[in-house]
Amino acid sequence: SLDGLKAAASKAPIVPVLVVPDVAAAAPLANALVEGGLTTAEVTLRTPSGLKVIEEMKKACPELIVGAGTVLTGEDVRNSLAAGADFLVSPGMSPRLLDALGDHKDVTIPGVATASEAMTRYEEGFGMLKLFPAAIAGGVAALKALSGPLPHLQFMPTGGVSADNAGEYLALPNVVAVGGSWIATEKDVSSGAWADVTSKAKTALSKI
Ligand code: 3PG
């Protein structure tokens, strides 16, 4: 289930979305995030190293809830779970991915951009949804509007979330957490700017 993620998000509701090409960065990155007060991370499968990075981050920081992002195929689902991912995130849904998710819908946060998509995912058994790309799909105003007719849906908006607007999203009753790449950018990761990552995490948490 997503209970681990929800418990972690109740302490620190910002999920850094990570692109980590170099497995050696996994441990110092995990430590930098935890040092900054974060409790969760999403490692995208946009690099072939993603799966190994999930393993290494969990090894370095067993208390960190680590999910796999950019899960697009059945192979991604199987590999992510085998690597120890605590949750799965996809930018949207496809018939084949839905099939492959089978019994794992309860650990998956699929991307949606409209009320119809949200209703469909809920009917299929997904409890938490990622509004994506959040800023383009209407941002805070869209989530506010959706909470009227669909108050039972919970969201993790991602895409265009920043330190400046994370608080506005998190003030909404239907937002459990926000995701974003700004805490640890590809540049931060490739240059090993761990102190900056920690400081951005602390700043973001202090503003919400
Ligand atoms: C992504 O898929 O890269 C995430 O949505 C992050 O979006 P952001 O770079 O706008 O935070």
From TrEMBL:
Its EC number(s): 4.1.2.14
Record CDD domains: KDPG_aldolase
Pathway(s): Carbohydrate acid metabolism; 2-dehydro-3-deoxy-D-gluconate degradation; D-glyceraldehyde 3-phosphate and pyruvate from 2-dehydro-3-deoxy-D-gluconate: step 2/2
Broadest EC class assigned to this enzyme: lyase
GO molecular function: 2-dehydro-3-deoxy-phosphogluconate aldolase activity
UniProt-listed NCBIfam families: eda (TIGR01182), PRK05718.1 (NF004325)
Cross-referenced PANTHER family: 2-DEHYDRO-3-DEOXY-6-PHOSPHOGALACTONATE ALDOLASE-RELATED, 2-KETO-3-DEOXY-6-PHOSPHOGLUCONATE ALDOLASE
Name of this protein: 2-dehydro-3-deoxy-phosphogluconate aldolase
Organism: Hyphomonas atlantica
